[in-house]
Structure formats: structure tokens, C-alpha cells
Amino acid sequence: MKLKLIFLTLVLAVTQFTVAQVKFEAKVSKKKLGVNERLRVDFEMNKDGDNFTPPSFSGFTVVGGPNQSISNSWINGKRSYSKTFSYFLEPTRRGRITIKQATIEIDGQTYKTLPVQVEITAAVDKPKDGNNSDFVASENLHLVAEVSKGNPYLNEAITVVYKLYVSPRISVSNWRELDSPTYSDFWSQAIDMKQLKIENGEYKGEPYRFVVLRKTVLYPQKTGKLNIEPLTLTVSVDVPTKRRDIFGGRLYSTVNKTVAAGNRTINVKPLPQQGRPDDFSGAVGSFDFKVTTNKRELDATESLEAKVSVTGNGNLKLFDLPKLSVPNGLEQYEPEHNERVRTNLTGMAGNIGDTYTLVPQYKGKYPLPSISFSYFDLKTESYKRITSDEIIINVKTGPDGGDVVSTTEATNSGKKLVTQTGTQFRFLKLDANLEPIQKEHFFKSTAYWVALTAPLLAIPLFLFFGKKREERLNDISGNRVRKADKLARKYLSEAKKNLGNQKEFYIAMERALHNYLKAKLQIQTSEMSKDRIQRLLKEREVDDTTAIEFIGLLESCEFARYTPSSTSAMQQDYDKASRVIASIDKQL
């Protein structure tokens, strides 16, 4: 009998230990799927926890979630509890991908799930079910990249226009860029899209609406076959269903679709070698070239500006201008480069120039020899050369009006002669008229009396500020406001650090709001339904307006997981949360 009693006690103890054991595990809907299929991941626990942190989901795109569900039931006097965070994922590549660990805090302890490995295979056939929302969205939504020219020359401008085609059978609520092309083999310039405009057109012979999302001008920097990477978008698509509401209106199902423009390949031709000038620097287009000066006559030691400029259409920012050659008698400074170039769908247009500052040292006439500029003309597919005219600079007088050296002598010798005159050092002042500095004693000086009286004058100031501090400490209402502001900043500091990062910001914001309620209302996360929160706040005599604003913040955190949000909207939510928390704390 005693052995039976001991055995029964051990069984009950093991059962109690098993029941009390915390479980936190990750479950996937399938271990093997195609690259075009979706995967559901559930993080399930049998006890309520806080500060849930999902894995990074490397190798996947999160298209849905996190969705939270709670199950709480009593069977034969025993409580059964389950809480689940669900995510819907799309693979981004083939191969074996590991879903890493998620973490959560339960009763002050941190628990982690085990890593889960899934195999991603080639794309599988999609079910061609006309009633399937995902299939309908795929058949009626297309992202297209239109390339202006498939076989350009090296450094010839081409344009890539990205258009999103939408069938009248569906509608698009919003979209965001998932992956942008890098154009590693091109010089690229995006055209500013001031406003998106919806237009009517055709796609494969059927009527569609489309919007131009992006225009980019590319200048290929390599020859051969070059790949233009695709633009990838995540689009929220509203698909009509067969169900209707009580008023007879058709109900819609929202599907998040990932669409890509597809890779485009162009064949870049090298510039011809026949007739290629020796001084060719890579200019491709249609140009005009000239050399100008702001003056032709001046005196020695005066300065003039000589400008070498190219004007026209082509790759203006991608080649070097020819260098200006000057005789030895002119002092030359490094040129200042300036550009006035605009970029449109036809490429770059405008002018570029190098401005040289020249200073003649001696009297005479100095010729600026002609220089030439060569470029490849796309219209005639041949090289062209433009040569500037020779410019004569006439230096009328030398320093102090005396002739110093002739032009021929300055050019042949390459040396600058210095002529000494009687007034060469006239800028030096020989009579300084210096005066001695009178020494002043500190005793009975102004500084002495200030140092003596300053401590006496400071005593009333100390008394005044001490009184102000005492009044501040006795200001109970003001202290409550300051304490509320401090508490709001404490809970929202993490959210403030993530301003600009939508996902992390709203996760931190929601966590801050939940932690605040736990601290002030002594309730657990599992009890935080919106109705219960509003009821508890009303019981604690928090005004209805503040309670509604708090509930609105919680709804904003949930809604922001599925729709894009700007930095200004996040800043507004942060300011609103700070104000609402401070108001609730003051009223409590």
C-alpha cells in the first residue's frame, strides 16, 4: 500500500511539472515549397509573454503579419492557454533556408525557439482558379521596363521607363519599392517625377490603366551585353469576390503581390577605331567648342580670365576638356571647373567649362595658341574635330609703367626678370611711432572693486533662486506634469531612436504603450483588449477624449504594419503618444 502511495505521488509530481513547463516553439505550414509559393510560420507559446522579437527572416519577404491570436479555455477545471504570432513569407531564392530563433520574455525569463529549416525548390504550377484572389491579382497586374534603345554605343544615352499596368478588373490601394536596381555598369540619373499620373493604354492588346513610376537615363560605361536589373514592388491589390454586403455591394479581398519588371539586356557597341583622333577623350554627342577671354588688352600684373567651354547634348559630365596652353610670360593658375547641365529623357544637355586665371608679368604681345576638341557624332556615326582661333593678349605696360622685357626674351628664356626701382619697398613704414604701455596696479583698480563687491551682490541672487526652487518643489500639480513627461520619455525613448524605420518604430511604440498600461493599471498583455482598456481608463476617471486617443494609437500601431507610413506621420504619432501618456499619468 505504501509503495502504491509513493508511486502515485511521484506520478502527480511529474504531471504537475509537465503542466507548469513553458513551451515556446516555431511551426511552419510546410517544409518544402516552390519559390513562387508562400510559407506560414507560427510562433506558439502556452503562457503569456512580453517583448516578442521575431527573427530577421533572411531569404524571405514578409508579405503578411504579424497576426496575433489568443486561445483561453477551461476543460474539466483545467486552464488551457495558447498565444500565437503568425507570419506569411515569400522566398526570395532557391535552396535550403533556415528560419532563425525568435525570443520572448515570460515571467522574467527569456525563451527562444529552435531554428527551422525549409527547402525552396523551382517554381511550381499555380492553380488557375479564376476565383482565387492571388491568381486574379497575378493575371491583372504587370510591371514593365521600357528601354529606349537595345544596342547603343558606349556612352550613348538610353532611357528606362518603368510602368505599372493595372487591369480594370482590380484596383491598387498602395505600393512600395521592395528592391531598386543599382545600374552597376552605367552612369545613371533619375528623372524627377513630380506627380504620378494615371493614363489609359493597352497591355498585350487589352485595355489597361497604367502609371509611370520611374524614369532613368543611363550612359553605358562598358561594351558588350549589359544587364539592367529589375525594379521590384510590393503592391496591395483589391480583388472583387462573389460575396456581397447587406446592401448588395460587392466585397473585395486585399492581396499583397510582389511584381518585378524583369531583367533587360542591352548590347553596347564600342566606338569605331577608324578615324579616331589621338586626343579623343570620350565625348559622345553633338557639341560646340570655343575658347574666350574677358579682355584682350591689359597692363602687367593685372589678371584676365580665359574660358574653355563645350556646349551641346551628350555625355557632358563624362569626359575631360582639353587643356589651355599659354606662353611663359603669363602666370597661369589652376582652372575652376563649372557645369550647367540638365538631364531629361534625351540625355544630358547644357554646357561645361574650365576658367583659367592668367596674370602677365611683362610688357608685350602673348599669343594663346589654338586648341582642338574632338568628339563622336551619333547622327553621322563619325568623329568630328573643332579647333579654336588663336587669341593675342596685348600687355601694354610693365610694372610701374616701365618696359621690363620683350615677348621674345620672356618666351625664349622662360625666366621672370625683376627690376629694382626706388619705390619698390614703398609699402614699408619706417617710422612706427610706438608708445610705451603704462603699467596699472591691481589695488584700487576697477577689477579690484568688482572682485570685492561681487560676492556681496550674489547673496540676494542665491536667496531668490532658493525660494524659486522651494516653490517648484511645493508645486504638486506642476510636479505631476513634469513627472508625467519624464515617464512618457522613458517609455518612448526606444521608439524615438527608430524614427524613420517604420517596422521597428511601431513595434517599439506598441511595446511602450503595453508596458505603460501594465505599470499603471496592473494588467497583463493577454487582458489588453481595446474594450477592457477603455473600461479600465474610465473607471480610473480618465476623460473619454484621452482614452479614445490612446486606443487610436494602438490601432495605428496595428495598421502601420501593413501600409507604408512617412517619417512625418511617425513623428506625429510619437508626439501624440508623448502627450497622451503624460495626460493619462496626470489624471491617474
From TrEMBL:
Entry keyword Transmembrane: yes
Keywords from the named record: Membrane, Signal, Transmembrane, Transmembrane helix
Domain of life assignment: Bacteria
A Pfam match: BatD
Leader sequence segment: 1-20
Bilayer-spanning residue ranges: 446-465
The UniProt record lists the keyword Cytoplasm: no
InterPro entries noted in UniProt: BatD
Protein name: Oxygen tolerance
Organism: Aquimarina spongiae
Organism lineage string: Bacteria, Pseudomonadati, Bacteroidota, Flavobacteriia, Flavobacteriales
